[in-house]
Each structure stands twice: as structure tokens, then as C-alpha cells.
Amino acid sequence: MYDPRFDELANVLITHSTKIQPGEVVLIEGIEIPQEMVIALIRSVRKAEGIPIVEIRQTRIQREIILGGTDDGIKLIGDYECYRMKQVQAYIGIRGSHNITEMSDVPSEALQRYQKLLSRPLNDIRVPNTKWVVLRWPHPAMAQQASMSTEAFEKYYFDVCTLDYSLMEKAMVPLTKMMENTDEVHIKGENTDLRFSIKDIPVIPCAGEYNIPDGECFTSPVRDSVNGMIQFNTPTIYQGTTFTDVCLHFENGKIVDATSNHTEKLNNILDTDDGARYIGEFAIAFNPYITKPLLDILFDEKIAGSFHFTPGQAYEEADNGNRSAVHWDMVMIQTPEYGGGEIYFDGKLVRKDGLFFHPELEGLNPENLIS
After folding, report:
1. Both 147 and 202 in a single domain?
2. Which of 168, 205, 172, 149 is nearest to 12 (CA)?
3. What was the pLDDT predicted at 371?
């Protein structure tokens, strides 16, 4: 059924996120999303005089490919997809799921094979060489995760995804500059006392260019600088398993002890390769519409008053040299309802209990981002 919100979202993705220009080839990848949304994207690309190509996927089929895949078979698929990615100038990935735990019974070895031979090589082409944006689709499964009705969640979803990102973009400028001039970050909170340096690491403001929804500034720690401990208060799904109460202890950048409700599986993932026990991203988040976990990382990593800390691969835009097949965003919320907390830059308090304390940064507080 036609929904005018599809056209509104497609317009954001084409004109703001990827800024499609005449003649550019756009790969649209839809995973379990309505045909009407794909059609809206095709029409929006054509309106911008771009050239759309489409890939439709199903998660159960993808599970079977991964579950029974061999090194040669997965690599062959990866080679094909890498070749195709090299032919396009832009990528739009909309990813729905009828069952968020579809991959939960796939062995870690099979998932690691898929990441190593397909996902990582493909992302190494897509991320630095295309204009790209990825987002989730509001299936009833997501509404259930959010403890909301399907109708209410859909309204929430489109509000979040089509907010005025240009307003957010302007408000992020002071935070970006402040982080660029910061050496030591100190984070305090419940069962958390963490110190690390971000000196000379690029800082990337995100206002709807790569992810929808959006709202974060990210960088990465100097690889060997992280010391202390952190206990995350937000559930996280990785490789189809839900992890809670993840607690990490660091010495000179390395995770030397890790526990959770699935401690053995957590450590198996962190042992994927040498880089998985080091941090590849640190980001401060401030999307005003996202206030509680949905068990979907593209939403949860943007929760207002939160930050995320990421074992594994660093992004090339904010590179600390860490390399891994893992990139696992773990979220800590610091609003009063979740225990509060403080972030300091070189000893100066910049955010307390989820609200920016420094006058230059107050434009990023929720009441100032909703136009």
C-alpha cells in the first residue's frame, strides 16, 4: 500500500544523505522491506537523474548461505559482490528483519568466515569509495523490541528518520572542534571509570549522511591508551545473540577481562583476531527522539545522552590503526534514569547525566534539536 512517508524518507536518502548527481549509479539493497519503499527509492534516484540498480535479500536465505558455506563458496560470492560495488557511486541499504535472532544458531566459525571473506572486503570497498547510507526498516519485530504497537512505532520511526538533520549539522560544529583539540577523555559512571586519549585522531560529525537515524560525533582512542573499566547498561545484539551487563577491563588499550550474561561467547568474539580486543571507535550521541534501547544498534548508538565504545575495526576516516573482522558498538546511556555519568575533556566537564554542560554545546541538548 502506498504511504507518502515512503517518498519523504526516499527524498532524505537521495537529496541529503547521498546527494545523488546526474549519471551516478546507485545500488539499492533491500532486506525484507516493502516493495513500495524500493519503488519510492528507484523513482527518487531517477528524479535526481541517477541510475538505480536493485538487490533484494531475505535473511533466512542469507542464513542458509552462511550456515553451509565453504571458504571457496563464500569467497566467490564476495568476489562477485566486490566487483559490483566497484561499479557504483552510491549505496543505499535498508535492512528489515522479521526475526532479529535469525542468526543466533549459526556457529561463530561460520559467521567469522562470512565476515572475513565477504563482509569485510566488501565494506573496505563500499565505505571509502561510495556515497552510502544504511538504515533499518520498522517491522513489527522492531515494534515488539520497543514495547510499542506497530502503528505507534512506525510513526516514531518516520519522525526519527526524517527530522531536520541540517539543524543538527550546525549544532555539532562546536563539539567537533572541541574533540579535535582534546587529548584525554575521562568517563565516569556506575561501575565505570575509563581514561583514554583521542589526540590527533580525526573527529567525524554525523548528521544523516551515512546512517539514518543519525546523531553522533565519532573518533577513536589512541590504540594503546585505554585504561580502566566500563560496564555497559544497554543490551546489545551481535551475531544473533543478545548480550547484557557487558563489563570490560582495559590495560594499555587491550581488553584483558570481559564478562556478560554470555561470557564464553563474548570472549570467543573478542578472540576473533588480535584487533578485536582493542577499541576502534568512540562516539558521543544525541538524537533527541531516541531515548531508550530498541535492541537495534543503528538506533541505540544514537540514544540522546549516550556514548558508544567499539571493540574492533577502526573507520578509515578516524583511524587509530586497529584492524579486525569485528566492529561491535557497545552503548552506555548516562541519563539519570540509567544511572547518570560524566564525560570530561582534559579535565573539564562537558556532559553530565546525559546533558551537555558546556555552554557552546547546549545546542545539542534535546530541546534544541527538535524544530
Report:
1. no
2. 168
3. 67
d(CA 367, CA 339): 21
pLDDT digits (tens, 9 = 90+) for 78-93: 999 999 999 999 999 9
Percentages (nearest 5) of helix, strand, coil residues in the chain = 35, 25, 35
Burial zone of 2 (CB within 10 Å; 0-12 exposed, 13-18 middle, 19+ buried)? exposed
User: In sequence order, which ranges of 93-137 are alpha helices (DSSP H)?
Assistant: 108-114, 120-129
Q: Among residues 143, 161, 179, which one ends one of the domains?
A: 161
Grid cell digits, residue 65: 548461505
Average pLDDT, the chain: 94
DSSP letters along 43-104, please? HHHHHTT-EEEEEEE-HHHHHHHHHT--HHHHHHHHHHHHHHHTT-SEEEEEE--S-TTTTT
Contact status, residue 331 vs residue 232, Cβ threshold 8 Å: yes
Domain boundary pick from 139, 161, 183: 161
Q: Total structural domains in the chain?
A: 2
Q: What is the pTM of this model?
A: 0.78
Are 120 and 325 within 8 A, CB to CB?
yes
**Quick check: 134 and 295 in contact, CB under 8 A?**
no
Rg (CA), the chain: 20
Q: Which domain range does residue 361 map to?
A: 165-369
Q: Give the largest Cα separation in the chain, rounded.
A: 56
Rounded distance, CA 134 to CA 141, Å?
19
Q: Which amino acid is at 146?
A: A
Residue from 309, 130, 350, 327 nearest 221 by CA: 309
φ, ψ of residue 282 to 5 degrees: the values are -130, 130
* Segment 105-128 mean pLDDT: 92
Amino acid, res. 255: I
Task: Provide the CB-side half-sphere exposure for 290 (13 A, CA).
Answer: 31
Residue 97 has pLDDT above 90, yes or no: no
Q: Note the pLDDT tens digit of each residue in 204-214.
A: 999 988 888 89
| Cβ atoms of 146 and 138 closer than 8 Å | no
